[in-house]
Amino acid sequence: MIEIAIDGTAASGKGTLGKKLSDKYSFPYLDTGMLYRKVAHELIKNNKVNTTGLEKTSCHYAMILNLKELKNKNLRTEDVSKLASKIATFQNLRKILNNKQKEFNNSNKKKFGGCILDGRDIGTTILPNADFKFFITASLEVRAKRRLLEKNISFLHENDEKCMLQTFMNNMKERDRLDSNRKISPLVPAKDAYVIDTTSINSEELLSQVVDIIERKK
Ligand code: C5P
Question: Which whole number is the average pLDDT over 93-113?
Fold first, then answer.
């Protein structure tokens, strides 16, 4: 049974890598950021963001979260991204979501012979004994450009595009700061992770590097 842990910064290419590896090896894949996003989205939808007891309310939504209900386009908005990083600092929330991630891994690994998870603390906390750990990074500018391209927006003026790119860069920088500096499960490469910078490579090149590593050691 093979466990593959992928961690890294936002828009570094880790999600695309997870999906491509899942297609190649027919192992189930979980984008664990979606769990934090789902809780953040529920908080926004139910007007609970500025209420007292945010951690407790987050835990409530985490407990009733169904992993089969993570395919909502609204989970990708900038507001949800920002709030997801904020609530990801809550220890009790992380405990609940960690258990869901571990359950997903345990049941699918047995059934399919392997499992792939991506996030921020997979190699360090969720799957510390994973067979393969990858930590994916890229420059801030390249990552922000990728996010902007994904949104597929047509701009009337070049300046509008520049302005939005700058906003994406600022938001990502702030999220990186929160994720890397929090006390519990910060975003850091596991000691035994392969660190890959995707600033100047595309998703196919990344896949090929990762598959080489897996095939050499399998
Ligand atoms: O990966 P994504 O950008 O969708 O994750 C949203 C947020 O969820 C991250 O910025 C991070 O704060 C949090 N997260 C986390 N641990 C994970 C996955 C995501 O703290 N394993």
Answer: 97
